[in-house]
Amino acid sequence: xAAWWRRRAGRGSASGRSRAAELDELxxxxxxxxxxxxxxxxxxxxxxxxxxAMTVYGIGxxxxxxxxxxxxxxxxxRAAGDPMAALALxxxxxxxxxxxxxxxxFRPVAETGHVGARQALVELRALRAAAARHAPPPSRPxxxxxxxxxxxxxxxxxxxxxxxxxxxxxxxxxxPPGDGTSASAPxxxxxxxxxxxxxxxxPDDNGHPHVLMxxxxxxxxxxxxxxxxxxxxxxxxxxxxxxxxxxxxxHVAQDGLHGAREHIRRAADAGHTxxxxxMGVLLTEEGDxxxxxxxxxxxxxxxxxxxxxxxxxxxxxRGDLDGAETYYRKAVEAGDAGGMNNxxxxxxxRGDLxxxxxxxxxxxxxxxxxxxVSCGAVLxxxxxxxxxEPLWRRAAEAGHAGARLxxxxxxxxxxxxxxxxxxxxxxxxxxxxxxxxxxxSTAPPSAPAAGPPDSGPxxxxxxxxxxxxxxxxxxxxxxxxxxxxxxxxxxxxxx
Length: 495
What we know:
Keywords: Kinase, TPR repeat, Transferase
Number of strands: 4
Distance between the termini: 86 Å
CATH architecture of one domain: Alpha Horseshoe
Structural class: mainly alpha
Number of helices: 24
Order of helices and strands: EHEHHHHHHEEHHHHHHHHHHHHHHHHH
Radius of gyration: 33 Å
CATH superfamily of one domain: Tetratricopeptide repeat domain
InterPro entries: Sel1-like, Sel1_AlgK, TPR-like_helical_dom_sf, TPR_rpt
Protein name: Tyrosine protein kinase:Serine or threonine protein kinase:Sel1 repeat
GO molecular function: kinase activity
Strand content: under 5%
CATH topology of one domain: Serine Threonine Protein Phosphatase 5, Tetratricopeptide repeat
């Protein structure tokens, strides 16, 4: 509520108009346009029975802390049918946490189609939800953290003979409008609460693209489909990058990532950072590495960490190790564990095993599963299988296929055949599930369940399957695999 009072200065006649006409004009301007009016004149007009003045006077009293007197004047104006008085009363109650009382004032006005009352109801819902979560009400968008999961895009981890040389890149984040590294992050709250946040951010700009989008959400929630479409169209016509991003998320939810490609491209070309990264991913999958590089560089210039990683992967695959290292180090500076792991892989490729091991350890400490596999492989190369096993087990329990294979070998070496066979079966089951999911949908498969599959005890360990798996590296001259195979054959002979 605006503070419409001002201290009274000297007044003269206004071109011969009567004092009553001048007072009426001052009240009208204060009520309709929010212009300041001297307190004593607002009080004079209110006492004389002007309903608009009662509202203006009541709001002014509330703004200077005379709440009881403010309520009296606002109740009189509301009883006379003034909608602004009802909104002002509702606001007084909402500000002191009496949400049910506030709604009783807002609701009747909102049902007449009053936009301000509808906005007040949205804010009220957001405040109620925040109070229910014992959290402060939303006053600004959450900082966007692009929630992504790593996708392996390289060769399978080696069973044990050397550190895992795989390099990972990042897929696009998914989510509805909201929250996603900016105001567009996929929200933790409901769409209605997100809309309330936008209205709180832009209280005096009904034409702002984010307000139009918020009103579309609100009106759709209220069942006003035609109004929602009109607001949505106006928001879309603005060309605002955030709005285009939200629209692309809607199409992703309906049509999948590839089906929403053109909407994502529009948002990317309008300057939306996360959409630029997503276009880079899509173009990489399509084989257009030049186009992917362009979008990754644009997103990286905006500080998008996942684009640092993916651009590094693309440059390394091209053979530009210096360029790849530059972007991996940018990701490392941002604290990204995947960037640390990839930097370790690159340094290993350069022959700097000490440097590689340092960054694998850093990434493993941050929970990166690829780095856990690589650190374990380094220990195994030195003969420390006991030290390698817990690292591989952690990664295996997180669903890492290469870690599961390495863990199988560690278990076989110590004669734990039944557990080794269960882990080996889990790799086969995951591969089958991934293939089935890929053939049924373009969506990424769900992460495998942690730990060996608990489908009941097998009839006995499938030693033949384990031996078959070990025979490949053994024939290639892997001494560790040969020793494990000899141990397995000895256990088999004992059955």
